[in-house]
């Protein structure tokens, strides 16, 4: 039986002076050599289901023997979560600047030549400790820059600073209308077999601004650089983005499934003493280069025909586009299909779209994991 | 076989100078004494399904013998439909003023004592013609007021001007996450047995700003006034709001069901020559006074447990409220239920809410129609 | 020398669970028979200058002998103030429902016949105490209704509950781009000579949803009803809305002027012992029926030619409308003027407008107060 | 006397089916060897003053002998201009995706090694023609990609396609609350002496996503590459962003000043036959590395003390921050100043800010041009 400890972190301040705070929950592991874990949810304001998964995971963990430290940060973007616009949460980007909350993380751009030269004499463990300390300190330094940093970067760097202290980082998101899928870096593809997630997107080991990349990239770069110097070790940090179905949805039963999937991965990594088996299910992969965005070729009303998570044969209807201004012409009702087999992973949330709206993201060249 | 004629009406002008126009479709009836019809859809920007219903209804009507004139106005609020905010349509109110697009209609406040005195010598048919002409002219006069009128009122009065020319007015809406339901004035309750809609809200014969009320209220008032003078006739105009399930959804198959329901009502009223039977289904009613709004008693993440359109027994779970800031306390997870039997008709669209958000609307004291 | 005491009131809860609180400042008067005062600011989120006026007023009051209790509530709408949309504050209406934050107050609709019958035996002082108690209790009762109330109504009724406890209520607002003006009920027109505000709008003694009306209407109704029963007394409560120039503007020097104007009124009413003279300035009035809204007759780019607070002769340019889509035609550049003399009081904040946008509000038939 | 020809370009389609179009105005030059010009305005929806400058410039040009072709595109972002949020224009980013409209241009990433190898035999004139044709065709190709492109990229590439056909590209913007300033690439610094703009930001010759960079970067890269191959020519294309004071403001008189400044530059470049002298005024420069953003160190109400365009001595007040929740403490009113001399160029538009909001941009190390 393990116990959780609650605290808070302040990540900003609203115009009225109210602190923007995030609740933190810590399980203190009983084994200092077990990997440590950081899990956050709801950085995009409408993507709430990760909170329910954290809720179920904490409930489960209380019944397990927790070996590694686990820090959980639900409701990780209070400003984004509380920003409504009509009946929905406008939580994908900073309402002032438009910047995507998940593209605000800090790119360390470590000068590895210099850093490695100074630290290569260290043992692996000491090398990793020094590197980790450097990453955390770089984040802390940004929070006190004399001319300040943006609201979104302050939030991101505050979160990143916690993430850098862990060996395993899980960022819980959802798509708009989406099936479950995992963002997994190429070097860590084996991990994809533990989560309760059918589809995995295999991404390159490079930085695009998101939390998972912010967490693993510096470590992949260190590993790669050391290898070039003839010193081989596994990438010491694992980081994933879990897309847990659709936004604006809380489903406690489904959250329990995903909590069990996460637990299976943590068990595999030795974070809990007990053996937890992954769900017995088919799992598929797709490379990022084969992940296609389909944009509305014209404006109109959209009937989304293709179910997310279900294979779609080339030529089968993806969407119907209805154009009420063109009734009586051939363009009043148009069926759109794709020229290749695919698995639709997510689609847009609204049923009327401007030309160019991203209607669907589909996986092509899907393979079994 | 009937044919439809397309035209457009301009209802405003955007800052860049582009005209705000609405496509209009007219079936010209073959029998001048058959009732005329006005049907509009999508006055609230996210409530798109009514367009699909109009699409299916026009397709059906082409195969029928249309006796009365039918005017159809899909996409009836171009500004509201095109106003996105994040991935959803912010179409419920004017983004500048906040005024609900469906509360902008003109309240004629006819001085019936004066008007009736001047026109009481007329036959019923001539009386109705004169009254209708007065209503249309009042609308037209507003469009040319010297200091102008608001954007929303211009749109509403333009639509209202068309509606006043019809004997039957249908305003096609949807709820947020909703089952189908009908707003029906008390005096016209028999009509509710024709549409393919299981739940009917019986509303008083008074004006609250919406299209249906704007269309029937002046006529109910005339009828009521004449009755006081000892002259009895049926209310000459019928007007209903149809709530066709959820917003941000196009479903062509379901739209066909509702088109058939509308056709059954029009057939009953003699607008088409053919006999169209209403769907064989259970239909229920509820008085407006028994239609209850349940507001979030506290903030949090919401799991909507009660299915819309399904009876809910007193004490059964309505929602789960999850409070991630309170994990470890009794308030972390709270089940909310209602003290009386009800039928949940609609619920809020977002899964995280501030205190006071309208979570559910439920019918109580439901009776069989 | 007087001292202020700080506290907070909770008026709601955000989705993340954070309390919505308003800071309260209380000066405790030394004379129980002096009138009590309630002043709030910033109920509309972008209208911040009232906070600066409260700041300056509190600084001044510390140097005066305060006889009546004074409660000050700056930042009175934390949700509205913190809701940004782009670089501006979207603070005029609830972002979810569109309802104007200043139209959410409770209309008591007191059954005066019944209430007065029960309380007419009381002395004036006791009658007023009983009435006030009833008003406050009605507000408190709303906050605990079993099915809850909306977010905006909860805020409004919480504020109203404090306002009802005072004899003088000041609600500090601003216009969009505006000169200073005062909303003053007809029965209290003499008060307009004390504030540092040149233009006064004389409003009827009826309820339209705003705070000033919510505060004075029940008292005016009581006074009116008692007079009909042959019992005469002055309306016991005064309430005003002060429009302190433009939104999105803090000007501490100007705020001191308005703080002094408020102090002059409070001095006149005996709330402070010291005599404070009103500013020596011209003051003008206009009846609400002569306060005209001018809507954009067509869309386009707007140059606002008429300065707010400066008389404008009939026929002089009000705005230039530029239509870049019509360059080369007579409609490319159009000068708009009004057919009567007026004083422009405020104009719209944006320089490009849809047809129907409220461009200017102007006073006509202006008279010297 | 020159004449202008009007046309339109379609750049997208709204959900209701309405075309998004931009009005285009063309002066056909009388001398084929004179440089051609492309000028656009209002890509950010609230930045309207550039339209007035185009209006005044066209009026002026009608009285000049125009030698080079001039294409003018006012109202260049119809979707952004028409998107209001409250009383302001939410025009800085796509309301769906949050992407800044001025970061959507296409980065050609020309493979210069390959392209130059194939074309180096051409004369300069022929080389430039071939390069220009390749740029335009690349843009056109994007507009017909099989899976489509985003709404914002479609707009940007449509504009870019027109810009690439010109030798001189001017993109007319404004700041939020701003003095006039020019973005000028290092290689073209002499041009800054012609516009009626006091402050010039000297930017590197690299691509960051904006129109000016999209227009000049490929040409600077070609010039640089050719120089490395021993072939020297001037960068054939000039492109600038003009920031014409504040957003949400039309001022026709001020627009005439800026039209004259643009005319002086065009005259200098031989686009009009007549000699037009630049305004006699002081002009200053600053390198991008010395252009500093100052972020709100804490939240609160902001009085902007430093006037834009006026030198500010180190230590003088930049802003006052008022914290009404902290009245009675030292933090209630805080004066913020900078540690170095600077010229404030622009400040934020709202007077209440979250922590981290970009309050001011200031030029440091300012030099005389």
From TrEMBL, chains A, B, C, D:
Keyword Zinc: yes
Entry keywords, A to Z: Hydrolase, Metal-binding, Zinc
Cofactors: Zn(2+)
Keyword presence, Metal-binding: yes
Domain Succinylglutamate desuccinylase/Aspartoacylase catalytic span(s) in chain numbering: 34-268
Gene3D superfamilies given in the database record: 2.40.50.100, Zn peptidases (3.40.630.10)
Protein name per Swiss-Prot or TrEMBL: Succinylglutamate desuccinylase
Organism: Shewanella ulleungensis
Organism ancestry: Bacteria, Pseudomonadati, Pseudomonadota, Gammaproteobacteria, Alteromonadales
């Amino acid at each position: 039986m393990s116990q959780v400890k609650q605290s808070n972190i302040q990540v900003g301040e609203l115009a009225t002076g109210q602190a923007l705070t995030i609740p933190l929950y810590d399980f203190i592991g009983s084994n200092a050599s077990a990997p440590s874990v950081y899990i956050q949810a709801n950085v995009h304001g409408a993507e709430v289901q990760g909170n329910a998964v954290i809720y179920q995971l904490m409930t489960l963990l209380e019944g397990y023997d927790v070996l590694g430290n686990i820090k959980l940060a639900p409701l990780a973007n209070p400003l984004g979560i509380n920003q409504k616009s009509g009946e929905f949460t406008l939580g994908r980007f900073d309402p002032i600047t438009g910047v995507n909350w998940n593209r605000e993380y800090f790119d360390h751009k470590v000068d590895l030549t210099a850093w490695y030269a100074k630290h290569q004499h260290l043992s692996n463990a000491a090398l990793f400790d020094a590197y980790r300390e450097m990453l955390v300190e770089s984040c802390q330094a940004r929070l006190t820059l004399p001319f300040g940093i943006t609201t979104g970067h302050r939030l991101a760097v505050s979160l990143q600073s916690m993430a850098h202290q862990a060996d395993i980082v899980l960022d819980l998101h959802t798509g708009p209308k989406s099936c479950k899928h995992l963002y997994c870096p190429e070097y860590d593809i084996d991990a994809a077999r533990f989560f309760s997630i059918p589809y995995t997107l295999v991404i390159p080991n490079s930085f695009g601004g998101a939390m998972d990349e912010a967490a693993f990239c510096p470590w992949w770069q260190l590993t790669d650089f050391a290898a070039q110097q003839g010193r081989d070790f596994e990438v010491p940090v694992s980081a994933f983005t879990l897309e847990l179905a659709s936004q604006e949805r809380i489903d406690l039963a489904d959250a329990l499934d995903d909590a069990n999937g996460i637990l299976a991965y943590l068990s595999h990594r030795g974070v809990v003493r007990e053996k937890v088996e992954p769900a017995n299910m088919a799992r598929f992969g797709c490379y990022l280069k084969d992940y296609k965005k389909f944009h509305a070729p014209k404006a109109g009303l959209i009937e989304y025909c293709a179910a997310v998570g279900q294979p779609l044969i080339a030529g089968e209807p993806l969407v119907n586009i209805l154009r009420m201004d063109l009734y009586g012409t051939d363009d009043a009702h148009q069926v759109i299909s794709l020229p290749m087999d695919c698995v639709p992973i997510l689609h847009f949330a609204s049923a009327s779209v401007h030309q160019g709206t991203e209607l669907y993201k589909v996986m092509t060249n899907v393979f079994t994991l």
